[in-house]
Amino acid sequence: ALVSMRELLDHAALNGYGIPAFNVNNLEQVQAVMSAADEVGAPVILQASAGARKYAGEPFIKHLILAAIEAYPHIPLVMHQDHGQSPDVCQGAINLGFSSVMMDGSLMSDGKTIASYDYNVEVTRKVVAMAHAVGVTVEGELGCLGSLETMKGDKEDGHGTEATMTREQMLTDPEQAADFVKRTQLDALAIAIGTSHGAYKFTRKPTGDILAIDRVMAINKRIPNTHLVMHGSSSVPQESLAIINQFGGKMRETYGVPVEEIQKAIKFGVRKINIDTDIRLAMTGAVRKYMFENPEKFDARDWLKPAREAAKALCKQRYLEFGCEGQG
Ligand code: G3H
Ligand code: 13P
Ligand code: NA
Ligand code: ZN
């Protein structure tokens, strides 16, 4: 059944677990998340980016998610819009039937320019007013995702700013977070702690200087009742990179957010963990391997099946690691 994100995150907070929010763009990804959740009894957050809506088309994204609800009526499911760049985009998602929206006011509506704090407060408040009026949950973002190694935004993946930033801009300030929550009344707050979108997050296994889990603790101390969200939370498994490269891919050495760091963050109030890249890597590795080993095959179902299986295995693993088993 379709539920608000507020309901799922409140339950997660009460029971001390975190929920992976998986980005979906097509049928196989939706099926992978749903069958994984079904097998472990997990609640589901399916999120669609602007890119997903453009790729699939709005009617398809909407009806793929509605199909998931029809196929798995017993699973509580949130239909979330990822990275809304303006109140208009959020209104559009609400009109489409989404039960949760993200107003990302950390950047201007061009998705590139770093926004002022006042702008962020204003657009987020506006979205909270219209969303709460119809029972829709709002996620906001304070602080800019970016690499504390290069001091640059995460433009590499086609997202966000490529501007050079200060450490202060890339780490959410606990005091400002408290003011932001008070002034916007949002439901969930995405924070910046040194993660970035895409596969190339860290050039080495991250340590506390470049992945600031202690900042999560400080924010949680200041606003213990706010659900925190971590973006850019793929772990970029080395095995996935190895399979991709073994079967003709060309990915550079890179590291993601270790699962044990996410588990620590969950202890400090992180309730929603955004994952897209890990599914991309899993599916790409599976397709490359299948194509290489079965060069005579040409039925799309033949190679989409292992891709879907690999995505499902990844989702199942994250559900278990974040404590979702039996919580759905
Ligand atoms: O926001 C980041 C997610 O990974 C979505 O990516 O905009 O390429 O669909 P996308
Ligand atoms: P990853 O690129 O680390 O999977 O992050 C996804 C994300 O934050 C979507 O909003
Ligand atoms: Na989001
Ligand atoms: Zn994100």
Automatic annotation (TrEMBL):
Catalysed reactions, semicolon-separated: beta-D-fructose 1,6-bisphosphate = D-glyceraldehyde 3-phosphate + dihydroxyacetone phosphate
InterPro entries found in the cross-reference section: Aldolase_TIM (IPR013785), Class_II_FBP_aldolase (IPR050246), FBA_II (IPR000771), Fruct_bisP_Calv (IPR006412)
UniProt keyword annotation of Zinc present: yes
Pathway(s) the chain acts in: Carbohydrate degradation; glycolysis; D-glyceraldehyde 3-phosphate and glycerone phosphate from D-glucose: step 4/4
Cofactor names: Zn(2+)
Cross-referenced CDD domains: TBP_aldolase_IIB
Signal peptide span: none
SUPFAM superfamilies, sorted: Aldolase (SSF51569)
One GO process term, biological-process aspect: glycolytic process
Enzyme class: lyase
Keywords noted in UniProt: Glycolysis, Lyase, Metal-binding, Zinc
Pfam families: F_bP_aldolase
Gene Ontology MF terms in the entry: fructose-bisphosphate aldolase activity; zinc ion binding
Cofactor note: One is catalytic and the other provides a structural contribution.
Binding locations of dihydroxyacetone phosphate: 198, 232-234, 274-277
Chain residues that bind Zn(2+) 1: 83, 197, 231
Active site: 82
Purpose of the protein: Catalyzes the aldol condensation of dihydroxyacetone phosphate (DHAP or glycerone-phosphate) with glyceraldehyde 3-phosphate (G3P) to form fructose 1,6-bisphosphate (FBP) in gluconeogenesis and the reverse reaction in glycolysis.
Family recorded in the similarity comment: Belongs to the class II fructose-bisphosphate aldolase family.
UniProt cross-references to NCBIfam families, sorted A to Z: cbbA, FruBisAldo_II_B
UniProt name for this protein: Fructose-1,6-bisphosphate aldolase
